[in-house]
Amino acid sequence: MSLLSACLDRLARLGRFLWSAWAGLAGLALIGALWQAGHEAYGDFILTAPLDTLAAAARLLREGRAQELLALTTARALAGFGLCTLIGTLFGVVAGYSPATLRLSRPILTLLLGVPPIAWIVLAMIWFGPSDLTVAVTILISATPVVFVGAVEGVVTRDRGLDDMARVVGAGPLRRFLFVSARQISAQLFPALILALGSAFKVAIMAELLANAGGIGGALARARAMLDIAEALAWVSLAVAALIAVEYVLIRPVRAELERWREAAAPWGVKR
Amino acid sequence: MSLLELNRIGHAFFGRTVLEGITLGVARQEIVALVGPSGSGKSTLAHIAAGLVEPREGRIARNYLRHAMIFQEPRLMPWATAAGNIGFPLRLSRAPRRMRRQMIADAALRAGLLPEDLGKYPSELSGGMRQRAAIARALVTDPDFIYFDEPFTALDVALKRRMQDLVIEAAASARFAALFITHDLLEAIRISHRILVLDAGGRGIAGERLPPGSPGTRDEAAIFALRQHYLTADPLFAHIHDIDERLRP
């Protein structure tokens, strides 16, 4: 009975989510229209028509190599993202609970955020050569601070009243963390994770392009060398599609499951 | 033997003494109301007794089996349904799942929550319902001692009365003892067997009064007359409404 109702609830939410895709589609159509206008104003060489770009992307996918390159870049981005999630969350939670660590890490954070990712790519290239490790390390360094700050915010802004409540009913530090704090931290952490995932893809492609490490970045570099605008735009579209796919398959469902109560809290009518 | 004994408890926040030499005991099935002016350290004392705050000095003997606490705010977890919140102590004590549902339903019923409210999230419940859920969460483990930390201050008058009746009934049927922190003298008289008055500076218990009769049997007129008598003619309650909001602990 309760299982059935839980399934129905999720199905209803999925339906609502899919229905809300019309709005997203409208936004995409708007971009497409602007793109088309730009194409008609500046011609094929500067900006290829959106439909031609889509055709080029489809051709790339059909011809085989593209899927391999996409998988390679996605795997690299995900590896870097996984690492930065793990390390950022771990250190963020520790720093959130220990003010001394937080004070110690603030200047390090400023330093890490201040150095442009491109500098890290150059360093990583020298250290590791054009390999997966270069990409992963660059992602790690450039995306970890965001996750770290998200985790710290989650710990610092948690409701301490709930901690006391849990302590009164006999929860030790570990169970207080697991049952009470972890949920509150995740609420702050997820926006940071989505941001980090986006920057993981961006940095991965940038690192591939500069380090000549293959993947979509490598293909982009080739398209640039051959001044093939259609192919370059097609690669960009494919990379964005991969990012969106990963975000909506990997992160959003987990977040929706954890934040079911927020939807209940929203007033009736239009759910955002 | 008392269920709870505090012996010469003292506490200080950042070097400022808020409590000093507090000695009190709560007997089995006794409801003790602790009143005192704002900022006299009542809540701190309840937190010390419940083990949330480590006192700077003094001894605490807790001779009960299980305690629960009802706070001024409901303190429900926003991501869990009412049932999830009420069942939280059971989850911590690793009660079998099958039994949990029945115990949650029983506690909710005693706190006046309807079965259809159990699936709602706290944000979907009204203020009174949230506090009912908090009361149900305290009752669910069948504790023999409950700390009440000004639980009904934020509720309106009618709701407050209803909640007080609920506590009186629950105390009579579940036979728990309680330390009830409040600054509302009327509430203290309605609900308790014994009223302790905390010294305005937190230096010991200034005195105690035993309202005649037992909770639930006193009629409203007598309660109100007793309150008037306490406030106008009893020197013990002379400072009860003194407020110095700068002196927050």
TrEMBL record, chain A:
InterPro entries: MetI-like, MetI-like_sf. Keywords: Cell membrane, Membrane, Transmembrane, Transmembrane helix, Transport. It is a multi-pass membrane protein. Belongs to the binding-protein-dependent transport system permease family. The chain crosses the membrane at residues 17-37, 77-97, 109-129, 135-156, 177-197, 233-251. It comes from the Bacteria. PROSITE patterns: ABC_TM1. The keyword Iron does not apply. This is ABC transporter permease subunit. Residues 70-255 form the ABC transmembrane type-1 domain.
UniProtKB/TrEMBL annotation, chain B:
Keywords: ATP-binding, Nucleotide-binding, Transport. GO terms for molecular function: ATP binding; ATP hydrolysis activity. Residues 4-225 form the ABC transporter domain. The lineage of its organism: Bacteria, Pseudomonadati, Pseudomonadota, Alphaproteobacteria, Rhodobacterales. This is ATP-binding cassette domain-containing protein. InterPro entries: AAA+_ATPase, ABC_transporter-like_ATP-bd, ABC_transporter-like_CS, ABC_transporter_ATP-bind, P-loop_NTPase. Belongs to the ABC transporter superfamily. It comes from the Bacteria. It comes from Paracoccus pantotrophus.
